[in-house]
Amino acid sequence: MSHGVTAATANLTYSGESGGLNEATSDIFGTMVEFSADNTGDPGDYYIGEKLNMSGGYMRRMDNPAADGRSLSCWNSSAGSVDVHLSSGIGNHFFYLAAEGTGAKTIGGRSHTGTTCNNDTFAGIGKDKAAAVWYRALSTYMTSTTNYAGARTATLQAAADLYGTNSQEGYLVSKAWAAVSVGTALPDPGTGTPTPSPSTPTPSPTTPPSGNALANGGFEQGTGGWTQSDSIITNSSLQAARDGSWYAWMMGYGADAVESLSQSNIAVPSTGTPKLTFWLRVTTQESGSTAYDTLKVNVNGTTLATYSNADASSGYVQKTVDLSAYKGQTVKLEFAGTEDTYLSTVFLLDGIAIS
Fold this sequence. Notes:
elongated; five-stranded antiparallel sheet; alpha+beta
């Protein structure tokens, strides 16, 4: 019956990583029905098919999918090429950890082991909250081609919708994804009361500050002065600004994507040695020095600098681009992002100036 729910919502394609998410959704909601039924003859647990008299005692286990010797407990780059019933283990494992947290437990009279792929330990948010997050992500944010990186983004947004943009629930959801090798955990917001989603103010006049030829280089006036291909300029607490509250969040889809952020009619200073400076933070699921995902700095259509997943850093790093060739000219500045099919890279921009 849960396959019908999936077909009527995200309609996840039944192959690749989206197929694994499709199968995981059925295990997740089937398990929640079992808990809801509260049948004393078959108490709720995170074992799938434990009544089938199979040689191993079950068909699948959400707490430890790899215990069957075939299913995936942790994401890897080959996850999209295995049978969807086996790659579903990644989603099942995430859900168990989000709901129950780590450590050994007895649930429904059966032993459960909340092991992780990164040796982390943390508490769960409870199965009802975890199910609410999964359903909202499935019905509101996932699409037919969503992969595991996209599911992480969808569930984080769903958790922000339901429990606040700076909530413990969202933080623990991110911890559960990191524990199955999908992305990294968000900063711990502490135990304060969840805050409502920030509203977008009406942009105010964007006269450049003294010494900066750009308008609204720090984004504190919202989108004023900038042209964006998507909702790039944000004050979302899912990431951190370098200064103030607003910043530009580019890419991070874990799928083929392009984005651009630009400003036109910029008067490059005619004296001295003009330069572009900005703060950049790069976080990625990629590894190694190969540039799979890139952010290019274009001036009048010419690429002057390129950054990639290989430039990942723990915080913001200031970058400088020489604009001497454009001294005294009026130019268009563009940040152009490109992401490939697999794994995500996030580029955060703040404090952009031309002087």
